[in-house]
Amino acid sequence: MNYQYDALFHNVRIASMQDNNALYGELLDTAVAVKDGHIVALIDAQNNREFQQHAEAAKQLIDGNNQWLLPGFVDCHTHLVYGGNRAIEFEQRLRGASYLEIAQRGGGIKGTVASTRSASNEELLKNAVKRAKRLCEEGVTTVEIKSGYGLDIDTEVRMLKVAKQLEQLLPVSVCTTYLGAHALPHEFADDADAYIDFVCEQAMPLMATEHLADAVDVFCETIGFSTAQTERVFNKALELGLPVKAHVEQLSDSKGALLAARYNALSVDHIEYLADSDVPELAQSGTVAVLLPGAFYYLNEVQKPPINALRSHNVPMAVATDFNPGSSPLASILTAMNMACVQFQLTPEEALRGITAHAAKALGLTDRGVIDAGKVADITLWDIDTPAELAYCINGHRPTAIYKGGVHV
Ligand code: NIG
Ligand code: FE
After folding, report:
1. Domain limits for position 392
2. Which of 10, 169, 322, 340 meets the CB 3.0–4.6 Å disulfide criterion with 328?
3. Are 26 and 62 members of one domain?
């Protein structure tokens, strides 16, 4: 028999995350029809006769038992492919050393570069699977993963290939980002401009022609790269047809966000030191503000991102784990949500938008992040009374079911 739908989810409360004026974009008395991995229709379940007809057209009828149905989560900023870990630096920081001092003495990102270069592909993959699995268990169905712990071509390519391989092993879509301009490798010591030449002339063209990266990122910061260097990377990326994003204003107000907005960046990430007066330009460029409360927490930062200004200018705010071995060893998107609420005073609704609709936008993805006809059928079910519970309780919830592209996993 030829069914019109592969599955029909009914008896659910839907947090569609559409922009429809309802809290959580809630849809009442609605069923979700899925075919070939996509949501093909939202069906009025109030009209019994009509609903019965649709139900008969479905190969499988999924009774949600009045649970909440949410879009699969999108973790739009991670660095989860890396070698080694930095527990020892965590210890050093607790004995008084700062993140900056550790970075300046060759630890920090550079330490992870050494351990990533020496790790085999198998080791990198094995550990990346473990980390990504944690995210998936919480309902993440799309994850962005950056390179940036290799810095040489060989290791950066290996990182990005390992990242993409996760799609074969876990029910998750992977967006890859080339973050060559993350730190200065020792081969280029004291010559950051020469390293940027290498990034622009050798690495980025390869990333583009081999389709290894979906976007390009830069760490624009006093301990990273200057705005002039960042601009060179942006120019090259756009020339190659790759969208840009950047780590900006994490430790100081370097005006990286303004620059990123001028290059129509997909997102500006961290932004604790972003000035209120720079927010209107982000609103204009449609750039997403990605909040990374895990890094704020681990670094014991006190400067908070300008949430009120972002809110009042309607800049979409996303929330991500920034899962990395140094500033944010955080393998939990739900904890990131909680932290965004407690530390940055996001509402639970804003936080949930931050890991769904706005996170998808931060990756330039228009086919996910909300429950609507035409979107991919990345769907999770939750045994909760209100979606606010997800942000409210730490380690309190897991989805009762996850569907990736319409397939139960
Ligand atoms: O997002 N800010 C730069 N990059 C990472 C930190 C990476 C690391 O410490 O290894 C971040 O916080
Ligand atoms: Fe980061």
Report:
1. 5-72+370-408
2. 322
3. yes
